[in-house]
Every structure is written in C-alpha cells, then in structure tokens.
Amino acid sequence: MKTLDDLKRVREEALKAMSVRESGHATKVTVAMGTCGIAAGARETMSALLDELGKRGISDVTVTQTGCKGLCEQEPLVEVTRKGQEPVTYGHVSADKARRIVAEHIVNGTVVGDLVVTK
Asked: Which residues contact 71 (CB under 8 A, 6 or more apart)?
C-alpha cells in the first residue's frame, strides 16, 4: 500500500469479506469449531463454505462458528438454519460435502438427507 486509495480498497475488500459473518440474514450456517471439530477438519470445512458462497456471489448468508456441540463422533458438524424452519445439522462434513450443502440446501432449499445427523 502506497496511497490512501490503496488503503481504502483494502478496507472495502475486508468489509465485504466480513459481511458474510454478520447476522440479520435469512440463512445462518454454523460450523462447530471445538477442538474435536478442528481435529476432524472443521477449518477446511469452514474455508470450503466461505469459498463456495463467494464463488456463487451469495452474500445474504451468515457464516459463524461455535464450540463443541457434544457430537464428537460426527465432526465436522455444520448446522444450517433458515428463517421459519427447524435447524438442520450435518455430520462428517468434508470440504466437498460443504460445497454440496451450499448447492443443494442453501441455493436450492433441499435438505441433503444423507448427511443429516439424527441426535
């Protein structure tokens, strides 16, 4: 960065990236990031979710993280909550499965049945 315009551009890019984590959207995606989730690959899952949402230009989804959800054997866990619907928890979510959840559940509104965790 050499100019004020460079700094403003970097700021705008950072604000745009952070807006994905803000609340108030109709859909919220929560990734369990307790130590068990991280050990199972939750960071890669989170990165894949953010990447896929970005590639598709989807900005009306809140992506956040939480600690352990008590289902360690199902990690990495991803919960999708849409306004007016019950939350759906997905288990063993790899990066590829995260992209599938974005495509099928978030974009098309269809729950990915074979990934759903029953508590």
From this structure: 32, 77, 89, 91, 117, 119
